[in-house]
Design a protein that fits this description.
The structure is a single chain. This protein is mainly α. It has one domain. About 80% of the residues lie in helices and about 0% in strands. The protein has helices spanning about 10-25, 30-40, 45-70, 75-100, 105-125, 130-140, 145-165. The radius of gyration is 17 Å and the shape is globular. The protein starts with 8 loop residues before the first helix and ends in an 8-residue tail after the last helix.
């Protein structure tokens, strides 16, 4: 079932639906697309994560451009998150590479992390209000160094999580 011999309609429909949800909420790219690729289309978990990360980078780049035009990007926060997430992503990917090319081992690891990441995403969304109240009580916003450190640490956690599962940046971050 393809249109031009190379475009499969189910992929197009899935991409459109996930893109719409991400565009409306900023949440759901990895939470929706990676499980769709694994469960519906039968991809190996590592291939699903890699495919979703590339897909997300394109859609998020478009979203970033629109938000930059509207001047709604906090570049300082981007820098702090990146200073934690980029090294954590690299270390995570080096560890996966060190584990070897055993598809079963990496598939099992990624599947488990994906399950936990989806669960954490649900918790983050359900308890968002309480997490924000807790953060307010800790007064991170009044202590710039503590706030910066917490943002870098969050970036590191998200970098590792997203590298393994493609889930978490929108919902947890």
């Amino acid at each position: 079932m393809s249109t031009f011999g190379f475009i499969a309609i189910p992929y197009v429909v899935s991409g459109f639906a996930v893109g719409f949800v991400v565009g409306m909420t900023g949440v759901g790219g990895g939470s929706l697309m990676t499980p769709l690729l694994v469960l519906l289309f039968g991809f190996h978990p590592a291939t699903a994560v890699g495919t979703d990360l590339l897909y997300a980078s394109i859609t998020k780049a478009c979203g970033t451009g629109i938000h930059q035009i509207s001047q709604t990007v906090a570049w300082r926060v981007v820098g702090l998150l990146s200073s934690g997430s980029v090294p954590a992503s690299l270390v995570t990917l080096l560890i996966i590479r060190h584990l070897g090319s055993d598809a079963k081992v990496t598939g099992t690891l990624i599947s488990h992390v994906l399950g936990y990441a989806l669960f954490l995403t649900v918790l983050a969304l359900v308890f968002r209000r309480y997490v924000l109240l807790w953060a307010h009580r800790l007064s991170f916003y009044r202590r710039p160094l503590a706030q910066a450190s917490a943002t870098v640490a969050l970036g590191a956690a998200l970098g590792a999580l997203v590298s393994l599962s493609s889930v978490g940046a929108g919902a947890i971050g």
